[in-house]
Amino acid sequence: MALLESDVPIREVVTTDPEKAKALENDVRAKILDMLADTEMTIEEIHDELGRRGEEKAETTVRHHVNVLKDADMVEIARLEEAGGGTRKYYGSNTRMFSYELPASSGDRLASARRTTTEELAALIGTLTEKHGTELEAVAREMKPCEYCETQHYEEFVVRELLDRALVELGETGTLDDLLSTAD
After folding, report:
1. 142 with 89, same domain?
2. How far is it, in rounded angstroms, from Cα 63 to Cα 44?
């Protein structure tokens, strides 16, 4: 006899590849991503800024963390400068990470917006599968690890990636900011 039996609904989905997940195992790396999102910095500048934020790390440790993020393709060299007979590297983040939590009251306040979003997304995904279903399924089939796996979750992942990349593109072009500022 079960002491508790409950359906557990999916409330959140996190999509990332295993290398990025591994790179984010350390909270210092998340701080480095945040610092590099808007400003290019050298290892020394990252070290100093981490110190100001209460993270006392050796420069070699900071370099290690930056290299892990670089290997995961989340950070890249933004520019090189000649400096005292050597080369100074400036790093920038190509990944924006949102580590926020919505206020407890947001569920009720955003209920109407959530319904609108769900309806609009359902229509968009319908159009997407109608026009590009073959491509979505082909990519999903490429991803699935064995012949016995269903492709449904892989197709969902592909759609989520498309939505995420479209939001990134809107953010980078300023369109998202423009649209959000008209809501004020």
Report:
1. no
2. 9
